[in-house]
Write a structure and sequence with these properties.
The complex is a heterodimer. Helix content of chain A is about 35%, strand content about 20%. By secondary structure, chain A is α/β, with parallel strands linked by helices. Chain A is globular. By secondary structure, chain B is an alpha/beta fold. Chain B has six helices and 18 strands. Chain B has a seven-stranded antiparallel beta sheet. Chain B starts with a strand and ends with a strand. The relative contact order of chain B is 0.13. The chains are: A alpha/beta, B alpha/beta. Chains A and B meet through helix 1, strand 5 and helix 2 of A and strand 5 and strand 7 of B.
Chain lengths: ~300, ~260
């Protein structure tokens, strides 16, 4: 079933055991418990919720998504029912035995702490700090370009979090390794790299930007080489585990991320091409790769490409 | 995203307008397009004609549909799609029920069923006779057309769901297709299922990405944009807690279905 036959697929991230190294990327299929349950049933080792904020927000007006060469741009604008409004979904998922990573964001350090406590209280197995959404201009919490803020927020969340804390970083920075180091100093248990790459599309016929938000975030295959480089640089700079994200469509993409230093991968846009089956297919491919190359587990290939 | 020019505009009823544009090609009955009007919105619209020229039929329900309804020949709209699974062509004696602008999405299906030599009965329902969409187009098809109006101005006097219940109870049908307001559709589905008739119903939820990623159109474990919009009996059973009862608003909070 869904590529979970081998023991070699299981990974451990900051003490959290995942039955497989594939997760959904936040913002993909995370609005409701039943969809995330389906992601889990498709082979994901854990599911990641939609990014939850201190209050409900409807997101941007359409167009919020446009296809481009090698992927899509999205500017959803963080639609979400708020942390409180999502706790029921979270409890439903825990009731179903699903391993859940709760993605969240806030505008102040205090709000970050309140969110972290509520989500841990409802059973989140890990938290993923979204400090890196490119589509909500001027949001003070979206500080992934500022090492000092990243460290301060991470440290504040760590004070109250009962579960491991992942910090999701942005590729829209000059030196992502220094930001990852700041997150590690703040006590991050893992780094998720990366969020989408700021981009835009203009329509030649209408002579205007396509997305209502004007700019959006690039995801899909076009993002992969950039995100892979980010994972590589972060792996050289920190000791905490890395969850790779960006343009993973098939097992080969996932293995490349692992060789660059990722212990697990998040898959989002790949669902557009492959459907929910992408998680099982990638799992099965990784398993086959491990067997054919005489590796006993995912752990054995993490960071292998760094060896001289 | 592809920009097309409107070739023809037809005012079907006081609040429904059909916009014709160059054929999108390869579409099946029940599929939809994402229709973009720059500066206004991008919304899902079922195809009301799938051949060339193709069309959508817009009922004014909000800002985007009002703006679309005001378009003239030569104006441009942006299109993505066609998206979604579409209806499957089944049955020798199919029964179609369309309520209001839901008639539009079922019309290409009715045409295809007739072409495949099925003998469809098509119940079209509206509040009043001046709101019956495609009555002439359908009356030329050679199918059995029946009409209901809430105010009794034409055909059966009462709700389409009540009339559909009576007709289905009389028997003779082997497949039911439903498109229209959700409360109507859910009522007919329940009755059809009770009678053991297989159903395909077109569902509607808030559609943003249309490519199965964002989850804003979730109903149970399904995405209306990609797994739907057409749900068969097995899937309708799985979403029974939601269909005709509750849906997510733009922020993902559950609210009641009220029409």
């Amino acid at each position: 079933m869904v590529g979970l036959t081998g023991k070699g697929l299981a990974v451990e991230i900051a003490g959290l055991r995942l039955r497989s190294p594939t997760l959904n990327a936040s913002g993909v299929l995370g609005m409701s418990a039943p969809l995330l349950k389906r992601v889990y049933d498709s082979g994901a080792g854990a599911v990641v919720t939609k990014s939850l904020g201190p209050a409900a927000r409807p997101g941007h007006i359409n167009p919020t998504v446009v296809e481009v060469e090698g992927g899509i741009l999205n500017a959803m604008g963080l639609p979400n029912p708020g942390v409180e409004g999502y706790l029921e979904e979270l409890r439903d998922l825990k009731h179903e035995g699903v391993t859940v990573v709760a993605s969240f964001f806030a505008s102040t350090v205090e709000e970050f702490k309140v969110g972290a406590e509520a989500l841990c209280g409802a059973g989140a197995d890990a938290l993923e700090l979204n400090l890196s959404c490119p589509n909500v201009g001027g949001e003070p919490g979206m500080c992934a370009a500022d090492a000092v803020s990243v460290e301060r927020i991470t440290a504040a969340v760590k004070q109250v979090a009962k579960s491991p804390v992942f910090v999701k970083l942005s590729p829209n920075v000059t030196d992502i390794a220094s930001i990852a180091v700041a997150a590690e100093h703040g006590g991050a248990n893992a780094i998720t790299a990366v969020n989408t790459l700021k981009a835009m599309a203009i329509d030649a016929d209408f002579r205007c930007p396509v997305l209502t938000n004007v700019t959006g975030g690039l995801s899909g295959s076009a993002l992969k080489p950039v995100a892979l480089r980010c994972v590589w640089e972060i792996a050289e700079a920190v000791k905490v585990p890395i969850i790779g994200c960006g343009g993973i469509i098939n097992w080969r993409d996932a293995v490349e991320y692992m060789l660059a230093g990722a212990s697990a991968v998040e898959i989002g846009t790949g669902v557009m091409y492959e459907g929910f089956e992408v998680y099982g297919k990638v799992n099965a491919g990784i398993e086959r790769y491990l067997e054919e190359n005489d590796f006993g587990s995912v752990k054995e290939i993490v960071g292998l490409a760094h060896r001289k | 995203m592809k920009a097309v020019r409107i070739e023809r505009v037809v005012q079907e009823t006081p609040d429904v307008t059909t916009l014709y544009f160059p054929g999108v090609g390869g579409a099946r009955p029940g599929q939809y397009l994402m229709v973009w009007l720059p500066g206004v919105d991008e919304i899902p619209m079922s195809l009301s004609t799938i051949s060339d020229p193709s069309s959508i039929s817009v009922r004014v329900v909000g800002d985007a549909t009002r703006a679309l309804s005001k378009l003239k020949k030569g104006d441009k709209i942006g299109l993505r799609g066609p998206f979604g699974n579409g209806y499957t062509i089944k049955g020798k004696q199919p029964f179609l029920v369309g309520g209001g602008s839901g008639i539009a999405s079922l019309t290409p299906l009715a045409e295809e069923l007739v072409a495949k030599e099925a003998k469809p009965t098509f119940l079209i329902g509206a509040r009043s006779k001046d709101q019956l969409v495609f009555k002439e187009r359908l009356s030329k098809l050679g199918l059995h057309l029946v009409i209901s109006t809430d105010d009794g101005s034409e055909g059966f006097h009462g709700y389409a769901s009540n009339y559909a219940g009576e007709l289905m109870a009389e028997g003779g049908y082997d497949q039911v297709y439903i498109c229209g307001p959700e409360l109507m559709a859910a009522k007919i589905w329940v009755e059809a299922d009770r009678l053991g008739l297989p159903v395909e119903a077109s569902l509607e939820r808030l559609c943003k990405c249309a490519v199965g990623l964002c989850g804003s159109c979730a109903i149970g474990p399904y995405r209306v944009c990609r797994d739907g919009p057409i749900f068969d009996s097995a899937k309708l059973r799985e979403v029974a807690a939601d269909f005709g009862k509750r849906r997510m608003d733009a922020s993902g909070r559950m609210i009641r279905v009220d029409h």
